[in-house]
Amino acid sequence: MTQGREPSSSPADPQPAGAHAAPGSTAFDAPAPGEAPTAFSDAPSTAVDPREEPTAASLEERLGHADRYDFVDPLDPDRREVEPIDDSGSDDEITEQLRGQGVKIGRGGVTPAVFYPAIGIVVLVTALAMVFPDGTGAVLESIQGWIVRDLGWFYMLTIGILIGFAVFFGVSKYGRIRLGRDGEKPEFGLLSWFAMLFAAGMGIGLVFFGVAEPLTYMTSDPKPGTDGPPSALAEQGLAQTFIHWGLHPWACYAIIGLALAYGIHRRGRPVSIRWALEPLFGERIKGWLGDTVDVIAVLGTLFGVATSLGLGVQQIAAGVQSIGIISEVNNTILVVLVVIITLLATTSVVTGLGAGIKWLSNINLSVAGLLLISLIIMGPTVFLFREMIQAFGLYLANFFQMTFDTAAYTGEEGQTWASSWTIFYWGWWISWAPFVGVFIARISRGRTIREFIAGVLLVPTMVSFVWFSVLGGIAIHRQLTQGDLWHEGGEAIVPEKALFTVLSDLPAGPVLSVVAILLVAIFFITSSDSGSLVVDMLSSGGHPNPPLWSRVVWAFLEGLVAIALLLSNGLTSLQAGSLITALPFSVILLLMAFATLKTLKLDHAMVEEQKLLHRAEAISEHITDSMADRVTGHVNEQFAGEWGEVLDDRIDYRISRTRAGRVDAGRGRTATGEQPAVADPDAARKRGGKPPRKG
Fold first, then answer.
1. Disordered: where is this region (predicted)?
2. Which secondary structure element, helix H or strand E, spans residue 589, and what is its range?
3. Is 612 exposed, middle or buried (CB count within 10 Å of its CB: 0-12, 13-18, 19+)?
4. Contact (Cβ atoms closer than 8 angstroms) between residue 418 and residue 144
5. The whole model's pTM is what?
6. What are the domain boundaries of the chain?
7. Which of 364, 365, 464, 685 is deepest in the core (most CB within 10 A)?
8. Longest Cα pair distance anywhere in the chain, in angstroms?
9. How far is 512 from 386, CA to CA, in rounded Å?
10. Roughly how many angstroms between the first and final C-alpha of the chain, as a whole number?
11. Considering only the top CATH level, what class is 91-611?
């Protein structure tokens, strides 16, 4: 019978660990004398001291990495690749990208269902206005009267709602959402971005109404319901001007700009108004519904720009008359000026965006800044700053009352005043919204929604406040001190002439008048150039580099519409045209606000869900790793402190007997021929074990 395997040495004379181990056998090597046990392995221990607490930095680091977010289109989760249309690609590549998103591009690079209906409507209205100017003017005025009488409240409410949405988007939890990929840096630096917003905030209207509007509210046409001495009317009039040119118009632009910027930079959609309504209408926006939205946007932009061009050409003519170049202003002069400046704008179109609009915009800003600084220095400087601060306080105090003033208690007089001023402005701003919205959306990539709203609402608003405080303030000061700009019972203030009348009384008046004429002309050119670009993009399915031929067509049509409106009763028709085209687009703006809210809710929910899951995984991994380290360290400590001495000798015995060699079953000897050692039963008992069983 086989002999039992006995220890090769007694505890009093232990053998070095592994002395009898076969080469490469390390799985159960015992530690050398005085060494700590190594959990049955000679590999370095990675256990953490169980008495050490998990470090907070480790958990914070895990949670920091857990805030990552892989963007998924909230409206189309299966659409993983979200890449904006590549502006630098070839026309064929961009066209294929557009078609891949459902845009129907036809021959010539335009969208037939948008381009041709819009062209047809514009040509029809223009032809009717030129052939039947008096009849067209009467029809426009009749429609305007109906809108003001029956729907004026709707315009007032719409603007108020848009302001509420804009402020909410900026201060809410959605303000952290980035218009682009998460972590993406803004495309333009902060100062450059502010400068471009400033450029967007400047326009022909600021020059046209800069002097006339505050002066009119003080003198010939104060708002019904306001009364008091001229100084009180002046203060109230400047505050009312702030309402017309401050947060209210820019809330319209902020809503459409945000909707477009989110779609373009975050969801990779084309530059087209229809996509802002996709959250509400889904796939239907790719069909006739989307085409209708884009046609309305094209018409609104075209008539809005044409209104500005009509105002601008009237002021240029008045300026040329004021410096003695022409003796009187008539329709022939106005038409000639429109044709000349439209040709200049078309030249800018042909030279391209970079060489045309860029340089004209830079010149524009420089000239506007030069004129403003000159007027501050040459005018009553201290009075200008004092009246600006005082009017701003009145503006804040009466903000809500003036926002929702529907002239309910001022009768026909109040309705007439509103149609000429407040409601006209709301219609003008809404019709301009696609143009300005596309511009600010394209330059805002990488901004958070909070940055976008703050910049769009505050920067142009403050520019407008300063502008009207300076130009209007000079006129108000002159009227209060000299009283020669308007006399009681005199004719109404003529907006296009008021600026040059005020400039003529300042040092270097003729030079400043020339600068003002140049400023209006450049505004005219840049408005026509930029307007034709936006209209062309909308009628080309959102192509960032639309066909040159169609852009030239739109530039000419803008000039023709301006001529047609001027021939159909001048300023009144211009105001009516803006108000009418703004009516359908005001509904679209409201739908955009709700659509954007829906999209941001989905986006935020998906972001928070992913982050929550990642944080849960990070915490779970941290707890698992910490507990594993604690348990391993605790086991090693207990093993070394309580069981080490008892088990070490037994392990030594088993290992030494196993590695000493095989026992010859037939002769009772080891493979080396030596007699097996006999264990001491008493020694085994002393160690707490049993004596080896005899064979």
1. 1-93, 662-695
2. helix 570-638
3. exposed
4. no
5. 0.78
6. 91-611
7. 464
8. 142
9. 24
10. 7
11. mainly alpha
